[in-house]
Amino acid sequence: MRCLIVGAAKTGTTALLYAVAQAMGGEPVIHFEERIATLPPLAPHTAAKLLFEQERADDIAAFGAGFERRILLVRDPRDNLISRLLYLVASSRVQMDDAPWLRTIAALLQRKQQDPASVALQAFPQLRPPSVLLERTCAANEALAAFAAAHGGDWFILRYEDLVAGRLDALSAYLGLAVRADPKVDPTYQRVTRTKGAGDWRHWFTRDDVAHYRPLLDPLMHALGYADDWTLADPQLITPEHSWVYFERLVRERRQFFDLAPLTLPTPGQQGPATPMRLGKADVVNRLIRKFGFKRYLEYHKFDGSGCFGQVACDSKTQAYIPEHNYLDGANTERLLRTAATVAPHDILDLAQLLERHAGQRFDIIFYDPVHLRPAVDDALRALPALLNPGGVLVVHDCNPEKEAWTSAQRSPGTWCGETYKAFALLRHHNPGLTATVDEDYGVGLIWNNGLVLDYPLADLNYQQFAAQRASYAGLISYHQFQSKTADGDIATLFGAPAAPAPLRFQSAPAAAPRMASQLFWRGPEQDFSEEQALSLPIVLDGSEQVLHFTFPHGVAGIERLRFDPADGILALRLASIELISPKGALMWRWDADGHAGQDWRAVRFCEVDGASLLLTTGSDPQFHPALPGSVRAQLGAGCSLSVVMAPQPPLVGALLAALDQARQGASNE
Q: Does residue 234 form part of some domain?
């Protein structure tokens, strides 16, 4: 017999798969969340599980025709939301590598477990509006309900509540097998198990949550056959094992899976001096505000939602965003689009625009979370004090990177501190008694506006030098030291550390590698290509391999044609790949590198150098017009991205190849 199990994420599909497989006996072939397109021909004795969100409904229905038995598993959307809240953070390496994010969730879970009514669900980062988690939960349940209505006659619909309660007689009769509760699940997937119960939402929702989520979830509950009963438990009880202890175990296992260093999440009550405190930049900023009576706060941070504006408590708060579209990567695209939907364009300012907007104004404290590239960081560190009151503090994030891998001069997915540590160390070198770094959250740098020396030449520092004397270069203090130095409310005490010991060595700043720009244009029917519908990304002409992600912004739709301009001048580059990627990371289309001669390239030549194909732009406006299938064009829109991997060569290489190419062309014409 072949049996197919389909359900949304966190609805008990894993437990049901193994319960059915064990009832089938004879060691059936088990397919665990494999995509339909990748599955081999089905063996006669097979149990398979699909997640509803990962496939098209029509494909699931067609695929299910190859099975004698088909089970659709549904769950109360409220319980589904709680389960996703606690588990789905583990699916992302980027989130597992975000220590402040994990600490925030762990702290909220501890408070929620101790007093369920004191923390609303919207307090959790995953559910703060606009919430992708909530949108996906609603979309999955809505699609599941529509599928059940359309295909219910051909599928056995099982409720999760019946599964966990052991009410499996009807399922057993449908299968002709004795299905037992509590199957033996492969240890690889044990991490998905939490309560093995139903109705948990009654202990997690607050009255405010009921008012907020009821209009959203009521239609889904009705469509899935659940009663309109929103009665909360009295008393509400959440066990540690089903909340923060579960989360801590999940974090430990998944960080190990992703080859990340262990991260200690303190349990409630652990506040002693011997316990490492896990804090974030907002904790440092808020303590400065409280202890020194600061009233006016400015936040200037990356345009990817990574600031702490919402967590800062200050009488007057202002924020602005650094234009960051040139530095996006796939892992940040979704978060950027959420931010872009809520941010006024006039709040996206480069440094010059920021200084012009606030000319004549002064703040007590500025938090700066840069795009970590020099000399932009150096320029900001020397310019932002002009917006501070005398005695104010400039707070800078990412001044103490723990790993060299996090300090690349090009943005990389996951943890990335870039070159900020170099810029802060150089400013500290000229202002040793006015700077310090709190050793938390990748290093929270502090600069006291008290006679700063800001007119100094740029110089360089390598990571090995920094790591050997990081305490001196960064002026490191622990959080406990920070607490002690700020306890009496005298800011001079905080910055009263002795000057950094010699020798601290800096090298002459290397000349910046020359740059050009690549552009992606798009247009709809009966439109021309224009700068208004284009994205531009810088390319460094140093021969290194670079990955460009052109991500279509919010509101883009109806694309009929694309145009990729690899450079804005004469240039030689090795072009490894061009791919279109969906918002969920799926490959939509790939450039055929071997068939480039028959494609629509303009002002471009291809030549062979050392057995590798090299692209040579021969004018100021080289272009590639990809011939995309209609099915791909129909899917293009906001969140999709064109990913280009290439290695632009130094200008001299391009000039020489252009001259040789011109000479060959002249010879052939003769």
A: no
- Given a contact cutoff of 8 angstroms between Cβ atoms, the answer to whether 458 and 438 are in contact is no
Rounded-to-integer distance, Cα 521 and Cα 550, Å: 10
Token pair in block for residue 516: 């050009």
**What pLDDT shows up at residue 271?**
38
Closest CA to 238 of 210, 209, 202: 202
Select from 382, 385, 363 the least CA-distant residue to 288: 363
CA 204 to CA 211: how far, in whole Å?
Answer: 14
> Which residues are 550's β-sheet partners?
642
State which of 508, 534, 565 marks the end of a domain: 508
Strands (E), 351-478: 363-369, 388-397, 435-438, 444-448, 459-460, 476-477
Minimum mean pLDDT range among 99-113, 517-531, 634-648: 99-113
Say what the pLDDT of residue 412 is. Answer: 67
Task: Extract the runs of DSSP E, i.e. beta strands, from 401-464.
Answer: 435-438, 444-448, 459-460
CB distance 593 to 646 below 8 Å: no
Q: Between the CA of residue 642 and those of 327, 377, 410, 597, what are the distances in Å?
A: 14, 28, 18, 21
Based on the fold, state whether residues 349 and 472 are members of the same structural domain. Answer: yes
Domain of residue 550: give its range: 515-669
Q: Is 199 in contact with 83 (CB distance < 8 Å)?
A: no
Strongest mean pLDDT among 84-93, 370-379, 484-493, 556-565 = 556-565
Q: Greatest CA separation found in the chain?
A: 94
* Same-domain pairing of 386 and 503: yes
Kindly state whether residues 483 and 522 are assigned to the same domain.
no
657 located within any domain: yes
Tell which of 448, 477, 508 closes a domain.
Answer: 508
Q: Are residues 495 and 524 in the same domain?
A: no
Q: What is the pLDDT of residue 524?
A: 94
Span 76-88, average pLDDT: 89
Q: Which distant-in-sequence residues (6+ apart) come within 8 Å of 531 by Cβ? A: none
Between the alpha carbon of residue 62 and those of residues 57, 68, 342, 372, 612, the distances in Å are 9, 13, 40, 49, 44
Are 472 and 520 in a shared domain? no
Same domain, 400 and 486: yes
In a domain, 258, yes or no: no
How many structural domains is the chain composed of?
Answer: 3
Calculate mean pLDDT across residues 458-463: 90
User: How much is the CA Rg of the chain, to the nearest whole Å?
Assistant: 29
How is residue 522 written in tokens? 């798009």
CA–CA separation, 39 and 474 (whole Å): 53
| 539 and 442 co-located in one domain | no
- With b for 16 or more beta-carbon neighbours within 10 A and e for fewer, the 184-220 pattern comes to ebeeeeebbebbeebebbbbbbbeebeebbeeebeeb
Question: 376: domain CATH number?
Answer: 3.40.50
CA–CA separation, 343 and 348 (whole Å)? 8
Residues 197 and 167 in one domain: yes
Distance separating the N- and C-terminal Cα atoms of the chain = 75
Q: What is the pTM of this model?
A: 0.47
Note whether residue 271 is domain-resident: no
Give the whole-angstrom CA distance, residue 328 versus residue 71. Answer: 41
Neighbours of 268 (CB within 10 A): 14
